[in-house]
Amino acid sequence: MVVVFGIILLALVLFVTEWLPIDVTAILVMVLLMVLGTDGVVNFTEISTAEGTSGFSSSATITVLAMLILSSGISQTGVVQIVGRKMSAFAGESLDRQLLATIGVSGPISGFINNTPVVAILVPVVSDIAHKGKTSPSKLLIPLSYASMFGGMLTLIGTSTNILASDVSARLLDHPFSMFEFTKLGIIVLLVGSAYLLTIGHRLLPERVPVEEDYVQEYKIEEYLTEVVVDDDSPLIGTTVADAIDHVEFDADILQVVRDDEEFIEPIGQKTLRDGDLLRLRADRETVQQLVDRETLRLAGSPETVADLEPEAAPDRTLVEIVVPRGSFLVGESLESSTFRQRYDATVLAFRSRGETVREDMDERRIRVGDTLLVQAAPDSIDRLSQNDDFIVAHEPERPDYRTEKIPHAVAIMAGVVGFVAVPWAGLGAALAGATGIAAFEAMSALSLPILVTALAGVVAMVAAGVLRPTEIYDAVEWDVIFLLAGIIPLGMALEQTGGADLLGSLVAATGAYLPMLGVLWVFYLATGLITGVISNNASVVLMLPVAVETATQIGANPFAFVLAVTFAASTAFLTPVGYQTNLFVYGPGGYKFTDFVRVGAPLQLLLSVVTVLGIAFFWGL
């Protein structure tokens, strides 16, 4: 038991510090559990090799994989973008209408398409709505993320956390979730949460991003952008741009070369410098002064606005923000070690990471999920970035390659995936059999299609109907999520088998001497919310559900009510930007600080804790 708690502590530290990617941390946990539980080694964890790798064959893992593919199929049709344009037409310049459109679309859609890709698709749509409507994106992007979490609680498939919790509930209580198990409570959460955002929440949000977008001023990079001239006696004459500056000694990049009123941008690495060339540099003042002191360059000035970097005479380049999502090849890399610049002929001027704007020594900084890069590139490069799942471009791209003609097929397939799980075939078959006496309906009464089967069937149907190409299946899967699930599922098993869940359950059950059952349920909701704020929502479910079931058993409460409290709390993590991936998606484009999520999320979390706990007690009983 002590060893299992040690592994849990190690996992928590790694999740919080991100010393290792979360999927690698999960694999490490899996390895430790198997090494310490394999025959021939002291069996500290009571986990065999088969059990240690059981996360890969778990129905939850495979179902999440299938749902990610199905969500990608919906995305390929462009249906969400079409809805987004309807949102923009409705929103106009009214903040109330912009909020209503954002929440009214992202919430319900997230109940039927995994809420993470919904937010990834809608970030650029909502950012464009904000700028066209003369509103700061900061006022809309956190509501977008929060509304997607509300919507995720409408159905079993709204978020991967629900699917995982259903699998754990089936193992612990023999009670998996049905498709609409908690929809009635999910609707209440959606309505109450939306009302909060429309009336109170948006007033607590500052305007971090200026209404009139100017990236140079927003990222405060004017001090890092300098114009210099190559003098006739400069030693740089005759060298290429790539070799002109020693990047080991100087943290500086040549962004543009201006020669005889003609401007050159990426790729300019092999362009030879001449006398009189004007170079636009990204470098701090100290670095520029060192270059000037060495009589290498002569100071000319600094561009102070986007217009200076994007004059009308050079429409072939633009500045844009891109968000790094989970699964991107940039995660864990630095700009120096990755091939980002070479692939996209793009220059990174600055980036935001966990609320910090980085403008110097960027090349060596490790890029993390949710980081936002300020990129200058040609329009065709921006288009390629928009079409690549490795990035979320924070403006709505014009993509002619959406398979809009496949929208009816995709919608029909998703309806089938949901319908064949949701329809009570047994009851329907029995009723029809009794009414008609037809033996075929008696066979139907025995039919039971779990979400795992319908989701996999949906994947096959998506490919067969041409909604997805076979090669796109693998790109659609967020493999770090799959490895995370596979790694943490055995951790929950170890917590049960070693008696750790019993011990923790006894400690929490002791609060029953001072609190009513409803109070203990509320404590579990709050505790799960706090834990989810610092680690993965999926990890918090796996750790908290066995303890919740054991606590309920010891105090004589309804264990399923406690399962639902943990599930709702883990799937609605508002307190921090790192507790839920949708929060990370809006962190950079919204220009938010960590405290913005606490300011808006803490009252919302407290409000929904009361609503959810009372709803669970009313609908399912204690």
From TrEMBL:
This is SLC13 family permease. InterPro entries: Cit_transptr-like_dom (IPR004680), DASS-Related_Transporters (IPR051679), RCK_C (IPR006037), RCK_C_sf (IPR036721). It comes from the Archaea. Residues 213-297, 307-391 form the RCK C-terminal domain. GO terms for cellular component: plasma membrane. SUPFAM superfamilies: TrkA C-terminal domain-like (SSF116726). Signal peptide: none annotated. It is a multi-pass membrane protein. Keywords: Membrane, Repeat, Transmembrane, Transmembrane helix, Transport. The chain crosses the membrane at residues 7-36, 56-80, 140-165, 177-198, 411-441, 447-468, 477-495, 515-548, 560-580, 600-620. The keyword Membrane applies. One of its GO terms (molecular function) is monoatomic cation transmembrane transporter activity.
